[in-house]
Amino acid sequence: MGQNAAVEIRDDRDHGNLVAYEGGESAGTIAYFVTDPAPGALVAVHTVVRPEHEGKGIAGALVREFYAMAAREGVPVVPLCPYAAKWAKRHPDEAPEVSAELVQEAERQLRHHPELF
């Protein structure tokens, strides 16, 4: 599955969403948060693609952009989302591993974000 050229991806940092739009409508989202203290790691919690947009490479495009966004900001990514974690293992050149300590801290801080459960 390749990235769909018609997909536009926008970061809604205030709401903790990286959103893919196709044809002007929301097609998929990564729900995330930023660990404290700033500048913290970007923590991917859920990746969801609407059923009518599945199979178009949208989830992969979202995760790729999530890692690229983190790289531009100079912060790591903690992929707590199972899809993002699988993607990272398949793309180690784009998705640097993070320490177990950072993963544990992200999991601890996730408890302070009940809106992501």
From TrEMBL:
Gene Ontology molecular function terms on file: acyltransferase activity
SUPFAM superfamilies: Acyl-CoA N-acyltransferases (Nat)
EC number(s) per entry: 2.3.1.-
Keywords: Acyltransferase, Transferase
UniProt feature coiled coil, ranges: none
Protein name as catalogued: GNAT family N-acetyltransferase
Domain N-acetyltransferase: residue ranges: 1-117, 10-99
Pfam family, one: Acetyltransf_CG
